[in-house]
Amino acid sequence: MSVLIARPERSKTGSLETRSGVDSRNPVQTAPWQPALPPLRHVVRQTGEQEFAHPAETDFSRILSYYRIRWVYEPTAFALAWAADGRPSEMFTPDFYLPDHQLYIELTTMRQRLVTRKNRKLRRLRELYPNVRIKLLYRRDYLRLLDAYPCPERPSEPCTLGRTLFSAEAIRDRITEIGQQIANDIVATSAPGETEPVLAIGVGSGSRRFLDAVVGEVRQADVRLATDTVRLTRYRTLGGARRVRVCRGPQTDLQGRRVLLVADIISTGLSVAYLANWLRRQGAT
Predict the structure, then answer these.
(1) What's the whole-model pTM score?
(2) CATH code for the structural domain at 168-281
(3) Alpha carbon of 105 to those of 57, 98, 188: distances in Å?
(4) Which pLDDT does position 265 carry in this prediction?
(5) Cβ(173)–Cβ(213) under 8 Å?
Protein backbone atom coordinates (compact mmCIF):
# COMPACT_ATOMS: atom_id res chain seq x y z
CA MET A 1 0.00 0.00 0.00
CA SER A 2 1.31 3.45 -0.96
CA VAL A 3 1.49 5.87 1.96
CA LEU A 4 2.70 9.46 2.04
CA ILE A 5 4.69 10.35 5.14
CA ALA A 6 4.36 13.92 6.36
CA ARG A 7 7.46 15.05 8.14
CA PRO A 8 9.16 18.37 8.94
CA GLU A 9 11.21 20.09 6.28
CA ARG A 10 14.99 20.05 6.66
CA SER A 11 17.13 23.04 5.77
CA LYS A 12 20.40 22.84 3.88
CA THR A 13 22.26 22.70 7.18
CA GLY A 14 20.39 19.55 8.13
CA SER A 15 18.41 21.09 10.99
CA LEU A 16 14.65 21.18 11.30
CA GLU A 17 12.80 24.33 10.33
CA THR A 18 10.14 25.50 12.76
CA ARG A 19 7.10 27.65 11.98
CA SER A 20 8.92 30.65 13.47
CA GLY A 21 11.75 30.20 10.94
CA VAL A 22 14.38 29.53 13.62
CA ASP A 23 16.44 26.36 13.34
CA SER A 24 16.21 23.92 16.22
CA ARG A 25 18.35 20.93 17.16
CA ASN A 26 15.58 19.42 19.30
CA PRO A 27 12.73 18.23 17.04
CA VAL A 28 10.84 16.74 19.98
CA GLN A 29 10.39 20.04 21.77
CA THR A 30 9.58 22.30 18.78
CA ALA A 31 6.68 22.19 16.34
CA PRO A 32 8.03 21.49 12.82
CA TRP A 33 7.12 23.63 9.86
CA GLN A 34 4.56 21.84 7.71
CA PRO A 35 5.60 21.35 4.07
CA ALA A 36 3.09 21.13 1.24
CA LEU A 37 1.76 17.59 0.85
CA PRO A 38 2.56 15.86 -2.46
CA PRO A 39 -0.25 15.23 -4.98
CA LEU A 40 -2.57 12.36 -4.07
CA ARG A 41 -2.68 10.96 -7.60
CA HIS A 42 0.19 8.66 -6.65
CA VAL A 43 -1.87 6.88 -4.01
CA VAL A 44 -5.36 6.86 -5.57
CA ARG A 45 -6.18 3.26 -6.40
CA GLN A 46 -8.95 0.71 -6.56
CA THR A 47 -9.60 -0.48 -3.04
CA GLY A 48 -11.30 -3.75 -2.20
CA GLU A 49 -13.27 -4.32 0.97
CA GLN A 50 -10.70 -6.82 2.23
CA GLU A 51 -8.14 -4.01 2.59
CA PHE A 52 -10.07 -2.15 5.27
CA ALA A 53 -8.95 -2.62 8.86
CA HIS A 54 -12.50 -2.56 10.29
CA PRO A 55 -16.02 -3.27 8.93
CA ALA A 56 -17.06 0.25 9.95
CA GLU A 57 -14.56 1.65 7.46
CA THR A 58 -16.16 -0.48 4.74
CA ASP A 59 -19.59 0.94 5.59
CA PHE A 60 -18.23 4.48 5.62
CA SER A 61 -16.55 4.04 2.22
CA ARG A 62 -19.83 2.74 0.77
CA ILE A 63 -21.67 5.81 2.00
CA LEU A 64 -19.05 8.12 0.51
CA SER A 65 -19.05 6.30 -2.81
CA TYR A 66 -22.85 6.15 -3.03
CA TYR A 67 -23.14 9.91 -2.53
CA ARG A 68 -20.26 10.50 -4.97
CA ILE A 69 -17.81 11.91 -2.45
CA ARG A 70 -14.25 11.18 -3.58
CA TRP A 71 -12.09 9.55 -0.94
CA VAL A 72 -8.69 7.94 -0.43
CA TYR A 73 -8.01 5.32 2.21
CA GLU A 74 -5.07 5.96 4.59
CA PRO A 75 -3.00 8.02 2.13
CA THR A 76 -0.85 9.91 4.65
CA ALA A 77 1.05 9.01 7.80
CA PHE A 78 1.85 12.00 10.02
CA ALA A 79 4.90 11.96 12.28
CA LEU A 80 4.00 13.11 15.81
CA ALA A 81 7.25 12.57 17.70
CA TRP A 82 10.88 12.00 16.83
CA ALA A 83 13.74 10.07 18.38
CA ALA A 84 17.14 11.59 19.08
CA ASP A 85 18.41 10.56 15.63
CA GLY A 86 15.55 12.42 13.91
CA ARG A 87 13.55 9.34 12.92
CA PRO A 88 9.80 9.36 13.69
CA SER A 89 9.03 7.51 16.90
CA GLU A 90 5.25 7.99 16.78
CA MET A 91 3.00 8.09 13.71
CA PHE A 92 -0.68 8.74 13.07
CA THR A 93 -2.49 7.65 9.90
CA PRO A 94 -6.05 9.00 9.44
CA ASP A 95 -8.47 6.55 7.88
CA PHE A 96 -9.80 8.65 4.98
CA TYR A 97 -8.95 11.75 3.01
CA LEU A 98 -11.62 13.67 1.07
CA PRO A 99 -9.68 15.61 -1.60
CA ASP A 100 -12.63 17.74 -2.71
CA HIS A 101 -13.05 18.99 0.85
CA GLN A 102 -9.35 18.89 1.83
CA LEU A 103 -10.40 17.02 4.95
CA TYR A 104 -9.05 13.96 6.77
CA ILE A 105 -11.48 11.65 8.55
CA GLU A 106 -10.53 9.38 11.45
CA LEU A 107 -13.21 6.82 12.29
CA THR A 108 -13.36 5.09 15.67
CA THR A 109 -16.02 2.71 16.96
CA MET A 110 -14.54 2.46 20.45
CA ARG A 111 -16.70 3.65 23.29
CA GLN A 112 -16.31 7.28 24.32
CA ARG A 113 -14.30 6.56 27.45
CA LEU A 114 -11.72 4.52 25.49
CA VAL A 115 -10.73 7.12 22.89
CA THR A 116 -8.52 9.26 25.14
CA ARG A 117 -5.32 8.15 23.42
CA LYS A 118 -6.70 8.87 19.96
CA ASN A 119 -7.87 12.32 21.06
CA ARG A 120 -4.37 13.03 22.33
CA LYS A 121 -2.90 12.13 18.94
CA LEU A 122 -5.33 14.40 17.14
CA ARG A 123 -4.47 17.31 19.40
CA ARG A 124 -0.78 16.68 18.75
CA LEU A 125 -1.39 16.52 14.99
CA ARG A 126 -3.23 19.85 15.04
CA GLU A 127 -0.37 21.43 16.97
CA LEU A 128 2.30 20.21 14.53
CA TYR A 129 0.30 20.55 11.30
CA PRO A 130 -2.08 23.49 11.83
CA ASN A 131 -3.04 23.65 8.15
CA VAL A 132 -4.27 20.06 8.08
CA ARG A 133 -8.04 19.75 8.55
CA ILE A 134 -9.10 16.56 10.33
CA LYS A 135 -12.35 15.34 11.86
CA LEU A 136 -12.77 12.51 14.35
CA LEU A 137 -16.00 10.52 14.00
CA TYR A 138 -16.97 8.70 17.18
CA ARG A 139 -19.10 5.58 17.52
CA ARG A 140 -22.26 7.68 17.95
CA ASP A 141 -21.45 9.65 14.79
CA TYR A 142 -20.93 6.44 12.82
CA LEU A 143 -24.27 5.03 13.95
CA ARG A 144 -26.04 8.28 13.09
CA LEU A 145 -24.50 8.21 9.62
CA LEU A 146 -25.80 4.69 9.02
CA ASP A 147 -29.29 5.76 10.04
CA ALA A 148 -29.31 9.05 8.15
CA TYR A 149 -27.53 7.99 4.94
CA PRO A 150 -28.39 4.39 4.09
CA CYS A 151 -27.05 3.01 0.83
CA PRO A 152 -28.43 0.12 -1.26
CA GLU A 153 -25.52 -2.18 -0.42
CA ARG A 154 -26.46 -2.08 3.28
CA PRO A 155 -30.20 -2.56 3.80
CA SER A 156 -31.54 -0.39 6.59
CA GLU A 157 -32.89 -2.18 9.66
CA PRO A 158 -36.26 -1.16 11.09
CA CYS A 159 -36.06 1.20 14.07
CA THR A 160 -38.35 0.96 17.07
CA LEU A 161 -39.10 3.71 19.58
CA GLY A 162 -38.26 3.06 23.20
CA ARG A 163 -40.25 3.93 26.29
CA THR A 164 -41.36 7.56 26.57
CA LEU A 165 -39.82 9.06 29.70
CA PHE A 166 -41.62 12.43 29.69
CA SER A 167 -44.63 13.39 27.62
CA ALA A 168 -44.69 16.59 25.54
CA GLU A 169 -47.31 18.03 27.89
CA ALA A 170 -45.15 17.32 30.95
CA ILE A 171 -42.16 19.01 29.31
CA ARG A 172 -44.22 22.09 28.41
CA ASP A 173 -45.55 22.32 31.97
CA ARG A 174 -42.03 22.08 33.39
CA ILE A 175 -40.74 24.81 31.03
CA THR A 176 -43.61 27.05 32.10
CA GLU A 177 -42.76 26.40 35.75
CA ILE A 178 -39.08 27.17 35.17
CA GLY A 179 -39.94 30.36 33.30
CA GLN A 180 -42.21 31.60 36.07
CA GLN A 181 -39.58 30.81 38.71
CA ILE A 182 -36.90 32.72 36.76
CA ALA A 183 -39.25 35.70 36.30
CA ASN A 184 -39.97 35.81 40.03
CA ASP A 185 -36.27 35.60 40.89
CA ILE A 186 -35.40 38.43 38.47
CA VAL A 187 -38.05 40.71 39.95
CA ALA A 188 -37.06 39.86 43.53
CA THR A 189 -33.34 40.49 42.98
CA SER A 190 -33.55 43.57 40.74
CA ALA A 191 -31.50 46.49 42.04
CA PRO A 192 -33.06 49.98 42.27
CA GLY A 193 -32.37 51.94 39.11
CA GLU A 194 -31.34 48.90 37.09
CA THR A 195 -32.00 49.68 33.41
CA GLU A 196 -30.43 46.82 31.48
CA PRO A 197 -32.42 43.57 31.32
CA VAL A 198 -30.93 40.29 32.48
CA LEU A 199 -28.94 38.63 29.70
CA ALA A 200 -29.88 34.97 29.08
CA ILE A 201 -26.94 33.18 27.42
CA GLY A 202 -27.41 29.83 25.71
CA VAL A 203 -24.42 27.50 26.05
CA GLY A 204 -23.83 25.76 22.72
CA SER A 205 -26.09 25.32 19.70
CA GLY A 206 -28.08 22.55 21.41
CA SER A 207 -29.50 25.00 23.94
CA ARG A 208 -31.24 27.23 21.38
CA ARG A 209 -34.69 25.63 21.48
CA PHE A 210 -34.72 25.37 25.26
CA LEU A 211 -33.47 28.95 25.56
CA ASP A 212 -36.21 30.26 23.26
CA ALA A 213 -38.90 28.34 25.17
CA VAL A 214 -37.77 29.55 28.61
CA VAL A 215 -37.29 33.15 27.46
CA GLY A 216 -40.78 33.10 25.96
CA GLU A 217 -42.29 32.10 29.29
CA VAL A 218 -40.33 34.78 31.15
CA ARG A 219 -41.45 37.48 28.74
CA GLN A 220 -45.07 36.39 29.10
CA ALA A 221 -44.71 37.36 32.77
CA ASP A 222 -43.85 40.93 31.62
CA VAL A 223 -40.21 40.57 32.60
CA ARG A 224 -37.58 41.85 30.17
CA LEU A 225 -34.88 39.41 29.11
CA ALA A 226 -32.15 39.79 26.46
CA THR A 227 -30.53 36.78 24.77
CA ASP A 228 -27.13 35.79 23.41
CA THR A 229 -25.12 32.59 22.88
CA VAL A 230 -21.62 31.26 23.50
CA ARG A 231 -19.75 28.29 22.08
CA LEU A 232 -17.25 26.25 24.07
CA THR A 233 -14.66 23.66 23.11
CA ARG A 234 -13.43 20.93 25.43
CA TYR A 235 -10.04 19.24 25.23
CA ARG A 236 -7.40 17.44 27.25
CA THR A 237 -3.82 18.56 27.69
CA LEU A 238 -0.91 16.22 27.01
CA GLY A 239 -0.83 15.60 30.76
CA GLY A 240 -4.46 14.42 30.71
CA ALA A 241 -6.02 17.46 32.42
CA ARG A 242 -9.41 18.55 31.08
CA ARG A 243 -9.70 22.10 29.82
CA VAL A 244 -12.47 24.33 28.43
CA ARG A 245 -12.05 27.24 26.04
CA VAL A 246 -14.50 29.88 24.79
CA CYS A 247 -14.36 29.76 20.98
CA ARG A 248 -17.22 32.25 20.44
CA GLY A 249 -18.08 34.73 23.15
CA PRO A 250 -21.32 36.71 23.52
CA GLN A 251 -21.77 39.72 21.25
CA THR A 252 -23.40 41.76 24.02
CA ASP A 253 -21.43 44.09 26.32
CA LEU A 254 -21.16 42.24 29.64
CA GLN A 255 -19.96 45.09 31.84
CA GLY A 256 -22.28 45.27 34.85
CA ARG A 257 -24.84 42.90 33.31
CA ARG A 258 -26.61 40.17 35.23
CA VAL A 259 -26.36 36.89 33.32
CA LEU A 260 -28.51 33.76 33.25
CA LEU A 261 -26.83 30.66 31.77
CA VAL A 262 -29.04 28.19 29.89
CA ALA A 263 -27.53 24.80 28.95
CA ASP A 264 -29.23 21.87 27.27
CA ILE A 265 -27.35 19.29 29.37
CA ILE A 266 -24.92 19.29 32.31
CA SER A 267 -22.73 16.28 33.10
CA THR A 268 -19.80 17.21 35.35
CA GLY A 269 -20.49 20.96 35.42
CA LEU A 270 -16.89 21.73 34.36
CA SER A 271 -17.88 23.76 31.29
CA VAL A 272 -20.57 25.82 33.06
CA ALA A 273 -18.30 26.54 36.03
CA TYR A 274 -15.50 27.68 33.71
CA LEU A 275 -17.92 29.85 31.72
CA ALA A 276 -19.31 31.49 34.87
CA ASN A 277 -15.81 32.50 35.97
CA TRP A 278 -14.98 33.68 32.44
CA LEU A 279 -18.10 35.87 32.34
CA ARG A 280 -17.21 37.44 35.70
CA ARG A 281 -13.79 38.34 34.34
CA GLN A 282 -15.52 40.07 31.43
CA GLY A 283 -17.49 42.26 33.85
CA ALA A 284 -20.73 40.28 34.31
CA THR A 285 -22.27 40.25 37.77
Answers:
(1) 0.46
(2) 3.40.50.2020
(3) 11, 8, 52
(4) 80
(5) no
